[in-house]
Amino acid sequence: MENSIDSIKNNFLDELNSVRNAQDLESLRIKHLGRKGTIQELYSKLKDADPADRPGLGKEINALRTIIEAELNEAKSRYAVRKSRQKVDLTLPGRTPSVGRKHPLTLVQEEIKKYFSRLGFSVADGPDVETDFFNFAALNFPENHPARAMQDTLFITENILLRTHTSPVQIRTMMEQKPPVRIIAPGRVYRRDTPDASHSPFFHQIEGLFVDKRVSFGHLRAVIQEFARYMFGADIHVRFRPSFFPFTEPSMEYDFNCIFCRGKGCKVCKYTGWIEISGAGMVHPNVFRAVGYDPDVITGYAFGMGVDRIAMLKYNIDDIRLFFENDMRFLSQFN
Ligand SMILES: [Zn+2]
């Protein structure tokens, strides 16, 4: 009887090795653990054994049953795992991880930078928190100029403020280097304004400055005209209108042909065919004096442009607040 216990054990292990699927496994279970299985057969043969050997043989049969049960259970769980793996449909498309996108203002700013860097402009930077000197005094703002008044400027102390334009970067750059200077200065600026569709207490400007001997208004005009074509298309023209800024003389405001009607006249441009972009002009001699340049030798032009405004035109956005609300439904449309 001991022999048959051993041979059943050896046979079982061989059979288990050749099991290929869950059905094979179930047949094996029935063969050994079933009501007419080998284990049951061994128990029924016990009564024929010598009574003295019965307890020892009974233990051996129990041990064999435990081994068979444990091996079958382990094999069964292996098949269950394999089966659940087979449920993965490899032909399905993968899950795309959500990838961040650039903000529309960043995209437009990069495009503007690209244009000016091709013309040899480098990018200059300055602090958002400025002093009266860099934001106003050095830019030839008289002591009593209305732009210094509390309703426009966000003052921190009497002398420290949030910059109202990117022009302080002109002063900082010219004080640090000798002419020629050819820079653009992108950055955030601040005004005391109540937010609505076209106003925000902060927005983004790009300042441009070119200073050298014999720089003329013609150069400025050409650079702005080419920029309009680069940004909005070959048929977009620029016009300059006389204006006033303390830091330029003469001062101009410049308009682009309305990009929606291409100059024919529509609701957006109030049927004028033109859209206001920003200001520009020839650098005022007092600004050169403030930074230690000789206005008899050096000339230069400066211009500003609103990044938010250009982005609104480019993407046909009618509310500036959309840029700052961080609504993913809005932001995910760009790029
Ligand atoms: Zn129009």
Q: How would you explain this protein's 3D organization?
A:
The protein has 2 domains: 2-86; 104-331, BirA Bifunctional Protein, domain 2. Helix content is 39%, strand content 19%. The chain is built from 11 helices and 9 strands. A hairpin with a 2-residue loop joins strand 6 (238-245) and strand 7. The protein is rod-shaped, with a radius of gyration of 41 Å. The structure holds zinc ion. Zinc ion (ZN) is lined by residues 258, 260-261, 265-266, 268-269.
In short:
The chain contains 11 helices and 9 strands. The chain has helices at residues 2-17, 22-33, 38-45, 54-86, 104-118, 132-135, 168-176, 217-232, 285-290, 307-315, 328-331; strands spanning 122-123, 129-131, 160-162, 181-190, 202-212, 238-245, 248-257, 274-283, 299-306.
CATH architecture field of the largest domain: 2-Layer Sandwich
Task: Give the integer mean of the pLDDT values.
Answer: 90
Please describe the biggest sheet, giving its number of strands, its sense, and whether it closes into a barrel: 7 strands, mixed
Question: Could you estimate the helical fraction of the residues in percent?
Answer: 25-40%
Count of separate structural domains: 2
Question: Gyration radius, to the nearest Å?
Answer: 41 Å
Structural class determined from secondary elements: alpha+beta
Shape: rod-shaped
| Uncertain residue ranges | none
Q: Spell out which ligands are present.
A: zinc ion
